[in-house]
Amino acid sequence: VSRQLKEEIRRGFARLEDPLAGLLAMLESSSDWKGKGHSLGYCITTELQLWIKAHPALPQSGTKLKKLQARVLGMLSQCPANLLDPLISIYQLHTADRNYLLEHVSHLYLQGSYKEAAILSIKLKLQPDQDVEKMCTPLLLQDKANLVEEYVAEYPELQRKLLQTLDTWCEPSFNIRDIIRPYQGLSKYKPEKFNRRVLSKLVFRLLERFNVDPALCPNVINQRHLRTMNYLFYKRFVEKTMTEENWADHIQSTVGENRCLQGHLVQSLLRHCDARGAARWAQHCRVPPEMLPQAVAEELQKLHIQDRVEEVTKADNYEASKKKDYYQLPIPRENIHFLQTWEETLQCWEKVLQPGQVVGVDMEWKPSFGMVGKPRVALLQLALKDEVFLLDLPRLLEQAEAEGEKEKLPHFIQMLYSDAAITKLGYGMSGDLSSLAATCSALKDTEKQMQGVVDLLAVDKQVDGLSPEHSHEERGVRQPEKGLSLLVQHVLGKPLDKTEQLSNWEKRPLREEQILYAASDAYCLLEVYERLCKDPESFGLGSDLTDSLVGKQSKKPRAKKQLNKQEAPSPSGQECQGPRTEPSRPPAPISPQEFSVVCDNMLQGLGRYLRCLGVDVRLLDNEDDHRKAAEIARQEGRVILTSGLPYQTLRSQVGEGRCFSVNCSEKAKEQALQVLKHFNVQVSLGDIFSRCQ
Known about the structure:
single chain, hydrolase, 3'-5' exonuclease activity, Rossmann fold, MUT7 Exonuclease, 10 strands
């Protein structure tokens, strides 16, 4: 706003007998201030606010002010956000009769202006005198969760009430339609955004943001534990990628003493084991005998120590026979050092912080399985040519704090990452560093200061022939390799054994298998890097590999670049077929009109995007079971688009090439490009929006 205009506005105020009434009269007779942005009405209002500060004798009181307040209240619901605070300040609405303000907001609510009622309540701090469930329900139905968060932000008691309400709605026997019924005909109602899955995500977000005890939400926590338990059973008994000890650790900490979860555990055991196996695990997880079916209870009585010893021995023999299939550490076991004291750690620093050193860096943390909070690093692995150091981070941080030297560990880690003379190797460094920052706040800017780092995730996207199908035919039911394991298999000949990946890394002492896994994960980076530097051309990389990679930040390459290459999709976008012995020809080109798909419920954004391009799309609802996709696909001849675990189940229920796994971390546009390229769908200008009303 020009200085001349400001001066003119102030002279105008000085000439008015009652500037407050004058401003209201001007706003009531004009409508330019109702739009967004800095209107003339906005400029005049903010100038009056400043002018009042310079003329403190002006503010009025009594009946005259009350009349002005009544008039301005009627205007606030039409105000753009930038005018609310100045008008509330000028007309001293915080001093107005509270019951009068509550009545006004209640009137807005009854008119169906729920958003306006909530915003005004926040500005006037009326929340403690309102019903939090009543105020927030229509906002949630309209997908305004951010406004709900703001509404309770300053009131811990309201946060707890809201969380308890949301948790009640997530109870399996609760009928969500009972909440929706009073709001039939609600404008901007988004039913797809109002279901148990979305509500439970909101609960976890609020628990974390407001640091509330999760015990306040038993339904949501139980359902998350149930999903975790189902996932663990899948990993152990279907995918077979989890060791017994590892699985038992997680099952015990997930189920605990919870009777409901113990009941589900017994049912799951009976689906996956015989009665004797179920009895053994029920005993291991301390399930009360009275909860067991008769057959399992009888087996429990027969169990002896010898049975358990035999089982463990069998498992050990199986592990030993499996080892030859996987990458093995080339250094002796005594060269792996587990460090829990500062004396040992300082000796490690001396070796690592040498100019010219090449260090493989990795980190491990306990899987959160979607529970509250960011993962905290439990183990930091540093691999040198002849030895590997495993740093017990929680223990070292605790000791440093006790000695009043909290900055000791962050200081070393910052020195390591910022020293350009030391080459640091990692895989997906951004993820590791964000977990490191959550563990120790002093490290939050480490990524900005990084020098001399090589993120092999960036290399993995450039290596020729890297696809999830690569040479796993002979491995039977095992899952296709992905991520670092796939890169190691391609460059060194054997994949990593990932059975310990989901271990409880916070539990001490670590098992021997965990120690070997953690050391291998860091050491293999050295071997992969050395091999790629020696012979980059044979992997389709430029000869200046070292120069081009050192110092690169670990940003994931965009999917679009990858799609431009003549190569198989990445592991997260697996092709539908099984192992291939020869390159298959691309399918004949088809138009979007000839391509019909059913999208699983985690891919609704992709489904809508494809529909805009003219593809015939059916979308699963949030409440639908994934298996419904297979029914629709078989009945209507559609291709299934899905992701993650459901892909493994659904691919076996339809013909070859009729199920495709999409990378959930990509945006809808990148996902669509991936699908169109894979099925050779050619989109013309006429196809775009051809299916839209």
